[in-house]
Amino acid sequence: MTVGRFAPSPSGRIHLGNILCCLLAWLSARQKGGRVVLRIEDLDTARCPMRYAEQMIKDLLWLGLDWDEGPEISGPDEPYFQSQRTSLYQTALDRLEAQGLIYPCFCTRAELHAASAPHREDGQTIYAGTCRSLTPAQRAEQARLRSPAPRLQVPDAEFSFIDGHMGYYAENLMRDCGDFLLRRSDGMFAYQLAVVIDDAAMGVTEVVRGADLLSSTPRQLYLYQLLGLTPPEFYHFPLLLSSDGRRLSKRDADAGLDSLQGRVTAEELLGKLAQLAGFHPSGEPAPAAELLEEFSWERVPREDIRLPENLFT
Ligand code: GLU
């Protein structure tokens, strides 16, 4: 049985990019007769207050994108808020620690982002391994000054997979990424760890998400392997860009449901998004269920999608 999921981070009102993500996840799972889980990724509780999550739930219902398991409905894998699942992440972290794969990192933000630090293509820094070889005495001394963040050692090995939409993707974890954090020094668990634990615990068989997370997948596959869990299939879809070619953000007020909801119906919105995503040429208003017939991953482009200037005028 296919199990798909929506895993939004409610750090503001939902925008067209988030909606496209949920629409594709919903269509991909439902077309196979599958179930859908809604999980709220609110690990960053300061940026994701409960009222945003509540609004997001209302927005998804307004859009007609339903789920079988999650907030409002409950299900066998409660709770569905990551902020309430931290003991599961701690258990996984303890297991990795017992395997001798974790070391405490004391690097500050400034040190990590120093101009000399090697950078990936996507702008993230590649961790140089500074704290990997600290002696116990050095660790004890550093620990007096600041609290450490647990970092996972990665091997000099390639992790590859066939993305259901983007095709073959591979990274050498040591060369392209470096040892990565599983929890911040303030205690907040890392997305990479939480997403793996939750997708596995919730029996998710397919993950649909934006191409910005393609390069997170090799790290996640490494975690699946270390924890003896079975990875899902992945489908990464192209990003929606604003009409001037930037990545959509909270600043693009026009693309937020805040400004759209009073002007367009859910069917109009889904119809236009489906047209932009290549599988609904007419762009006519349509409820999600009507798009099931036309949807196919083959019709979705692989390049970023630029929003036209006046989508709804
Ligand atoms: N919570 C993430 C986001 O909203 C999605 C994570 C995922 O799909 O793996 O960007």
Describe this entry's structure for a reader:
- The protein is built from 11 helices and 11 strands.
- Strands 3-4-7 form a 3-stranded antiparallel β-sheet.
- The chain has helices spanning 16-31, 50-63, 86-98, 109-112, 136-145, 173-176, 191-201, 217-226, 257-260, 266-276, 288-291, and strands at 3-6, 35-38, 102-105, 149-152, 158-163, 167-172, 180-181, 206-210, 233-237, 240-241, 305-306.
- Helix 7 crosses helix 8 (217-226).
- Strand 1 (3-6), helix 1 (16-31) and strand 2 form a beta-alpha-beta unit.
- With 313 residues, it is an alpha/beta fold.
Annotate the secondary structure layout:
Blueprint (H helix, E strand, L loop, with lengths): L2 E4 L9 H16 L3 E4 L11 H14 L22 H13 L3 E4 L3 H4 L23 H10 L3 E4 L5 E6 L3 E6 H4 L3 E2 L9 H11 L4 E5 L6 H10 L6 E5 L2 E2 L15 H4 L5 H11 L11 H4 L13 E2 L7
Parallel strand pairs: 1-2, 8-9, 10-11
Antiparallel strand pairs: 3-4, 4-7, 5-6
Helix pairs in contact: 7-8
Bound molecules: glutamic acid.
What is the compact description of this entry?
This protein has 313 residues and is an alpha/beta fold.
Please report which band the strand proportion falls in: under 5%, 5-15%, 15-25%, 25-35%, 35-45% or over 45%.
5-15%
Q: Which parts are unreliable, with pLDDT below 50 for 5 consecutive residues or more?
A: none
Overall mean pLDDT stands at: 95
Strand order of the largest sheet: 3-4-7
What coarse outline follows from CA principal-axis ratios?
A: globular
